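WARN retry 2 of 3 for item q-0093 after timeout on previous attempt; input resubmitted unchanged.
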Amino acid sequence: MRFWPFDKQTCNIEFMHADFKADKVQLHHLMFDESNYVPNSEWTLEDISATTLTILNFSVIIYSFKLKRESSFNVLTLILPITFFGISSVVVFLLPAESGEKVGFSVTLMLTMTTFLT
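OK item q-0093 returned
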């Protein structure tokens, strides 16, 4: 969560045949056919890799997926409105008390922001 919503993730999936040792069964990886990949609105697939290892005399395949989060949705629906409301609440206190329209001004700003979000 340190770099959210501009983060990148690496997901590893390990396959191992636990019943037989590597001298009996040797696993081999097949690379993914990227033509079957369905794009996602939240994540972008940057890279796929696969390695075959022998760990503790067992054959292991490790698939590694590198994903990048699409941040535009989170920026437009969370970060910008929160920043705008925070700044507008400070600006309301800068208005002179004689104007008498602090609450009306604040409500107008919030209604304007919600109109842009919908």
